[in-house]
Amino acid sequence: xxxxxxxxxxxxxxxxxxxxxxxxxxxxxxxxxxxxxxxxxxxxxxxxxxxxxxxxxxxxxxxxxxxxxxxxxxxxxxxxxxxxxxxxxxxxxxxxxxxxxxxxxxxxxxxxxxxxxxxxxxxxxxxxxxxxxxxxxxxxxxxxxxxxxxxxxxxxxxxxxxxxxxxxxxxxxxxxxxxxxxxxxxxxxxxxxxxxxxxxxxxxxxxxxxxxxxxxxxxxxxxxxxxxxxxxxxxxxxxxxxxxxxxxxxxxxxxxxxxxxxxxxxxxxxxxxxxxxxxxxxxxxxxxxxxxxxxxxx
Length: 298
What we know:
Blueprint: H1 8-20, H2 23-30, H3 34-48, E1 53-56, E2 59-62, H4 64-92, E3 97-103, H5 108-121, E4 126-132, H6 135-142, E5 148-153, E6 162-177, H7 191-194, E7 199-202, E8 222-225, H8 228-236, E9 242-245, H9 250-255, E10 258-261, E11 268-277, H10 283-295
Parallel strand pairs: 3-4, 3-5, 7-8
Antiparallel strand pairs: 1-2, 5-11, 6-9, 6-10, 6-11
């Protein structure tokens, strides 16, 4: 008995349903009518002899078999997309899309200025930008989810085929809201004093690797966030304390909304890298790397 065909169209439909949350929203994204999606699903279920969805109230949710096809199908979709892009790059040397990760420590406005200039010169290249934190940037590059990382933090992992150039260093300062109790104490403050207050901590965005931590001193409690922008907002609101990029809070320090404090025996400086794989030799990547290095982002 021949195995039933699994099509890219099916994987695209399952992916859209999962991301958009309903058949109707997925159909709108894919430019189809809802009945066409339902027919494709039903036909595939008949061929496989199993159900991909089950009704729960008014909603259709994935069965275990449907979830398996969704997850494996996404891997296949990513592989086919990468293959198509590699073929196009091989023909004309220019990538149709550049997938880029920017670390949360990097000043995003400066990066956007460079990307705007790049796209002005090369409008045919599509940019897919994501934000990563700590080890997540390196992981995204090593696992080929991105072709370029802007601001990957030291230390550089011993990964074969990864190349990098230093972008410079980012100074982090210990900062609190202006009305926080620590704002009025005599400086320098100590680690023991800090330990009495809630620390705002940014999650490492690594999916599979061991998360990195930056100076997690013993303390009373933590408040976890996803990005440094959220960390700054939390500390500005008085939720907690912690080290943040000095450049990112310069205006808040100048206005008096936040206060930077000296910590006895503690200083934080992060060296950040522009990183890529040597196997990625497209012209778009090469030109963008040069523009980013010339821009002096840090």
